[in-house]
Design a protein that fits this description.
alpha/beta; Aspartate Aminotransferase, domain 1; Aspartate Aminotransferase, domain 2; 2 domains; 7-stranded mixed β-sheet; 4-stranded mixed β-sheet; 15 helices; 16 strands; 41% helix; 14% strand; binds pyridoxal-5'-phosphate
Amino acid sequence: MELWTDIESEYRERTPTSKDDYEEIYRHVPAGVASTYRAWDPYPFIVERAAGVTLHDVDGNSYLDFDMNNGAGMVGHAHPKVTEAITEQLHDGTLFTHPHNLLAKAAKELKKRWEPVDLVRFTNSGTESTMHAIRTARAYSGRDKLLKIEGSYHGVHDYVLISKSTPEGKLGHPERPAKVIESEGVPKKTAETVEVAPWNDLDAVEAILKDHVNEIGALIVEPIVMNVGMTQPYGDFLQGLRDLCDEHNIVYIFDEVKTGVKIAPGGAAEYYGIEPDLVTMAKSIGGNFPVGAFGGREEVMREIENGAAHFGTYNGSPLVLCAMVTVLQEILTDDAYEHVNDLGESLAEGYQDIMEDTGITGHVENVNSQGTVSFSEETITDYRDYVANVDVGFHENYWFAMLNQGVLPHPHDASQQWTISVQHSQADIDEHLEAFKAVAPRLANEQET
Ligand SMILES: Cc1ncc(COP(=O)(O)O)c(C=O)c1O
């Protein structure tokens, strides 16, 4: 507690203008933020500008940024190539609600990366991508029910706001997780159209499918569960799901909003060698622009021509598609992947070494450009493990202590992971690790008490 008091007062001392500005925003905007997740105690710092790998706040502090816009910024901030392309497009028009040639250009770039993707539609966010992919899958299968994994996040439309962060007392049976609606305002009946399965337990998934034969038409998974830190699939879990989907005629959807283009050029489908029927994408495909996409097997995607609705005024705007094409063609190159993967490894090893040297109990999970540190006895394996074993309060000490050192280690909250961008350098990794080294002894001390 004493540690937190010190850390919080240091944060307050460094950010008085942020506090005043936040209070002003709060008067006009619920929770003082544009996405409720961004509100944290005592108050968030207010960003003035960003460039390269650095965020600058209104008090003149700078933060070496490994949050990178909740993982949307694998290209880093204001990448010169994106800025140049966008500037040119600004002069030629930012929105056409008629077809234009960037549609095919951008779709071809995604198809090159995702083997199973024959056809692509564009959206403006990850939420829209999962919403439309699920609708298309339901239309194709002719079945209403969706199967999702406990603890996985797929955005904020009603059908996926179920059993994402179930409180410990309401989890239900490990093999039959309870269906818990996450938001006021979501009709209770929504839960009747969704089933929830545990992660990494193929037998449990199979049993649920057997109980709902011919009811479940779509299965959506985050191929790495990324909203409990990072929990990878074990053994042949993802392929096992593929086989079960084939057996039960279910559309298999990979939600690659976080993994796509980040853990490999072709996301988790490439990294784990799996062929989903549909893939949802957003975040880092767009170089910090609000763009999403979903795509997949031709016969499923053609449902959009047969009654599965997909409309949107801003879908496929030339502005965001020109950002996407620039990112995919010119920035996320093979060399860029080598660079970020090396840095990711270096950061992960550095954390592990510092924890060992200072006696901090914790684990690093790292897959190429993304990684996370959990201060737990064992590696976190699923949502329940996260709830039971991650001390969120302790993680808060770490996160704010790092901010006070000028490093934003990952988005706020123990459930999140860092993003290494193409603009980070080994010197940035070293600076990140120096900051952790500086705060580690006090954290170790706190953990002991
Ligand atoms: C796996 C996953 N799917 C979907 C979404 C929703 O994306 P968006 O915030 O762009 O709506 C997120 C957001 O973090 C996500 O992590």
